[in-house]
Amino acid sequence: xxxxxxxxxxxxxxxxxxxxxxxxxxxxxxxxxxxxxxxxxxxxxxxxxxxxxxxxxxxxxxxxxxxxxxxxxxxxxxxxxxxxxxxxxxxxxxxxxxxxxxxxxxxxxxxxxxxxxxxxxxxxxxxxxxxxxxxxxxxxxxxxxxxxxxxxxxxxxxxxxxxxxxxxxxxxxxxxxxxxxxxxxxxxxxxxxxxxxxxxxxxxxxxxxxxxxxxxxxxxxxxxxxxxxxxxxxxxxxxxxxxxxxxxxxxxxxxxxxxxxxxxxxxxxxxxxxxxxxxxxxxxxxxxxxx
Length: 291
What we know:
9 strands; 8 helices; 2 domains; TIM Barrel; two-stranded antiparallel sheet
């Protein structure tokens, strides 16, 4: 992979792993009916050819960091990335995946138990067509499983070479600190990254989670940095987003039924003066810099 001179690379947390400063997410690598609530959209990448073009362009621009999860399309996103990866030099790409959510109706096919982690990593490795996953992340907190069980399983996977680094996602401040302290006490491999929703419309992580990350040397991977498209500047005051071409418009059709995750409710922002002030300021800054 030829590194683009305009691409910045940084170490992931306190690890020696260098990743591009932009990580390509793969939540949209699925059919509309496979989407989780608000994550479904008419703009999903529905064919493998579309996915390949996006991945090729990302790498061409110098990107080397790709994030996925077993739950995205119930394995479909990992499968498409794996098919693409099989035709590339594996060592050129940093692959991140996640485990936590229910993958079937079987009672043990959910959570962060040792059993589910061990089963899930094997299935992800098979779909991704690789011998190792660079960054394996706990997708969310699991109150049913002791922290020691979860992270000893992750530690064992690092030791046997199936994963290289451990990450977490969607943890609040006290839980993240508890994980860090438990791992230190037990002498296990550390958590190197936190994947958390973070943008100009979602700044709550600044109160606690990012403070923990700064104090403990944990890297931050923001998800939905454009808040489902709300921060792109393509939406205008007084206009209703098109339900056939935008995720925000698609969700707005049925806001009560869908969970508002990375595609937030348009009704929460259409008359929100603070939102429009942010957009106006971003627009003026963009124009000033020709971006």
